[in-house]
Every structure is written in C-alpha cells, then in structure tokens.
Amino acid sequence: SSLRYIIAFFSTMLAALPAFAAQPTPGALNFQEPATRIMERVIGFANPLHFGMALVAVFVLALLIWVCIRYNKRANPEPRKFSHNTLIEIIWTTVPVIILVVIAGPSFSNLFYQENEPDLVQIAESGDLKDPNVFVEAAKQGWITVKAEGMGNWAWTYYYPDEMDADGYQVQFVSNAIHYGLPSDPPATPEKPRYLATDYPMVIPANRYIRYQTASDRVIHSWTVPA
Q1: Residue 142 to residue 199: CA distance in whole angstroms
Q2: CB contact at 8 A, 211 and 117
Q3: What's the rounded Cα separation, in Å, for the pair 115 and 87?
Q4: Contact yes or no for 156/222 (Cβ under 8 A)
Q5: What φ, ψ does residue 156 adopt, rounded to 5°?
Q6: DSSP calls for the chain
C-alpha cells in the first residue's frame, strides 16, 4: 500500500538535556517537560495561544450574556426591525482574519523548523560550542535515522535504516501499546501505565542528531516525542 510520509526532523541531541522518562501524573497541568528543541518551540507557541483562546472564549461568553440580558423580551418588549449592521459585520469578519494571520506566523516558522534539517557538515566545521542549538561533536558523527510506521491501531513498527543486526538485516521491531486487549497482552505497571506506554519502546543512542521519519501502512497516524 502507498505510504504517506511526513518528515519531521528533530534536530536535537538528547544527552545535552537532562535524561527524560517523563509521563503524565495525576492532577498535573500543561505539557510534560520537553526533551527536544522542537517540543520546546511547540510549547512556547502553544502556551500563549491557549491564553489567547481563553480570552476569546470569555469575550464571546460575555457578549452572549449581555445580549441575553439586554435584548430579552422583558427588557425589550418591542424589538427593532433591521436586517443587518454593516459595521458589526465588518468587525466580526476582519477580527478573526487578523487573529488567524497572527497565529499563522509562528505556525509556519515551527513547521519550517521541523521539516528542514540542519546542515551537519556546516555545524561540524563551525566549531561553535557556545550556541545551545548546535552540537559540534554530534554533528561530526552524522545522522541516526529512525522511521516510525503506524500499524492500524495502537502499534508502531520502528526501522533503523542505517543500522544492521548481526545477520546483516536492517534493525526493526514492533512496538505495541499497553491496553486492554488480548489475554496475552503485557500487564500495566507503574513504570509502564496503560495507554501511555508500549511493550517495546523506541530506543535511540545518546549524543547523536536524530532524524525521524513517520509513515503509516493504512491510516493516518500522529507521532511525536512529548518528553
């Protein structure tokens, strides 16, 4: 079957950040602590966006309450008869457009950052050890490529195209989510909670630039490195 590739390059060296094995905790709010530069950018974009969404929701709710109180039958027994208001129609058309344009700017910037891999040769030759976004020693070793292919529901196949096993075959394995299913499914544990972990999680080397490729064998999937 045809595959739909969404290339997402996580230009990061995981060992440069604290070791993360985070998972959601009861009563917690917001995102988990990010483990990649891209996730840091996503959170930096999402947090103010959520605040703006809350302001819009409160404003619209206030308008609805005001209209219900000001223009109900008791307060307005003889309503005015008109078909439209040009000024209001211009406002409710232009304001949402302006909001979407403001959101589009950082959205496209983050998409560009995800889909365009850095030049490791240039990074390796730069010798810049002060820039927190580049890692010279890792760049000298090149990319480690990992392909994550969605399999129906609750499962992924991971491929390591550049890595071979002892028999000369490409390294690959299936990762199944831990959930209620067959009796033979692995049980949930505190370290591997149900619906939030897999029996064989993806493994990547430390101190390397990792390039991820996502695909699916039948339906569209979503895949990310939250923490």
Answers
A1: 29
A2: yes
A3: 42
A4: no
A5: -135, 150
A6: -----EEE----BGGGS--------TT--SPPPP-SHHHHHHHHHHHHHHHHHHHHHHHHHHHHHHHHHHTSTTT-SS----S--HHHHHHHHHHHHHHHHHHHHHHHHHHHHHHS---HHHHHHH---S-TT--HHHHHT-EEEEEEEE-SSSEEEEEEEEEE-TTSPEEEEEEEB--S--TTSPPP-SSS-TTT-BSS-----SSSEEEEEEEESSS--------
CB 110 within 8 A of CB 43: no
State pTM to two decimals. 0.65
Residue with tokens 């690959």: 172
Tell me: the pLDDT tens digits for 31-88? 888 877 888 888 899 999 999 999 999 999 999 999 899 888 888 888 777 778 889 8
Residue 226 binned pLDDT confidence (cut-offs 50, 70, 90): low
- Phi and psi at 3, nearest 5°, equal -110, 145
- How far apart, in Å, are the Cα atoms of 159 and each of 23, 109, 156, 177? 24, 29, 10, 17
Region label for 195, one of left (φ > 0), alpha (ψ between -120 and 50) or beta (otherwise): left
214 in Cβ contact with 145 (< 8 Å): no
